[in-house]
Fold:
Amino acid sequence: MIMSGDNAAQKSAGQKNAAQKPAAAAETGPGMGMHPVAERPKPILAGLKRVETKMEAKPTIEAKLPPPTEDPERAERIRDRARTFIMPVVAVFFLGLFWEIYSSRTGVTLPGPIKTVTESWKLIAHPWFDNGPNDKGLGWQLLSSLARVGMGYSLAAVFGVLLGIIIGKSAMAFKALDPIFQVLRTIPPLAWLPISLATFNQANPSAIFVIFITAIWPIIINTSVGIMRIPVEYENVAKVYQLRGARYFFKVMLPSAAPYIFTGLRIAIGMAWLAIVAAEMLTGGVGIGFFIWDSWNSSRMSDIIVSVFYVGMVGLALDRIVAKIASLFGTIGD
Amino acid sequence: MFETVKQPSAVAQAQGDAAVAAALAEREAKFVDISGVHKLFGSGKKRYHALAGVDLRIAKGEFVSIIGHSGCGKSTLLNLVAGLSLPTTGSVAVNGKEVTAPGLDRAVVFQSHSLLPWLTVLENVLVAVDSVHPDKDKQFRMDEARKYVEMVHLGPHAHKRPGQLSGGMKQRVGIARAFAADPQVLLLDEPFGALDALTRGSMQDELTGIWEKNRKTVMMITHDVDEAVFLSDRIILMSNGPAATIAKIVEVPIPRPRTREALLEDSHYLAIRKELLHYLIGTGLHAAA
Structure:
């Protein structure tokens, strides 16, 4: 029904748009408005990426040609490339300047950028120091947070894809489970923490559970949409040429739904990283979240700022890694 | 009429069992047996009567084309034989067995090639081979798949993905996949409809070449009058939908193997072509009015 029209759209969109496809599908998907999260970040990220690749690819082609004496286009490209490097530096400089001016005012306790770097130099320069369980470098703090996210996210990926396949394949399961998921997915991550603490009686499994329950919804929803949108042509091929069971799963279903599944995984990694800091603040132990909370309690504002910066960098890295993996699997279309 | 019909009959008669022979001959005369088929889609106000009382018998080894205007239910009829949908009333049987589901005995070449884009040419053909020979070893299945890839002259492209192939090449992979299933009936759903005229011509030559060698029973849907005359033993003309049915059946008594040059000289060819065009133009005007 929806299959044929959507499929035609996919064809014309071609493989370059494969990454954006799931986001577009999410808007019109069955279970309407299932994930506003899916619509928002995708086009922005895809747009950014395209600009970058263009910038990087062209000069290498140019380099092989003999240098043209006068090529206004080339000069323009170099200027444009320079701008993409210089403009962010300029922006950061002015941001730092305003920050410095603001914090130098009397009565402001927020340290300025210069004070932050000097006060927390030990933290920045030595990420791997280890003076016992209560005094570790930022590298260790981030690693233990990443380990928790890794656990919770992996569990969410496995169960999310499985549940997504089930509700995508079975109309009965969809009818039964979709309303429950719609309610559960709107619960803020931290609201789960007391429940998980009561269930597990331990801090670490509780934090992992919070990550799991935060990350699983976009994975379930995107996977199920991907499964529901397997083009009817592929289904017919599977029927006529008797692709069943594992062969159907690996040769038709999984490759066809892969772009959608990876969209879900990419949204999920961002949400998992968002949730970990808050969860760790409450559960304690080694981890970047508790480190920030501990710094706040001991009035080490500059340490907090440095930690927050690292949290952002790691979050960006996680997003890029999942996007890279997705691009390896997701764009094998015609 | 056909060698394939005579041979089993002769064997059976040698056993002195005339009844069995007669039954066999009868079964082969209506190898594909479509009788009293009606097909309705939807329900209530949206109900659409696609096919109304279609009766058609196709003999074993016969090449039959179905021609008609868009929306006349040609593809619906083909899907019924493929088992991709079931008739509302009436029955479809192939080789004496009622069609209830899709199966390897009725391979389909889809209009939109329908190759799996993440598999190579060889792997796409292997999909059918693996289903036919699940018990054979890997080497045998690979050799088998390669044989069919080479049959459609795509040997050098065996490890390319469909995205790297032209439209004609994609459709050749579709044909290789269908033959690899070793079906009893081959169902072609406007196989060359999306191709340009030159590619289409060479694809038709290739298809007749393959068909002359193994004489599968073929049911082909087409829009193209010349294609139908060139390839078929019989041409089925469908009336316009809704409630489409068989309007006319035209025999093509042009001897095989056929070549395009010889066809142009053939007196039958021009007469049949004229008859078909006359019918299509007439019904087209009728449909437009």
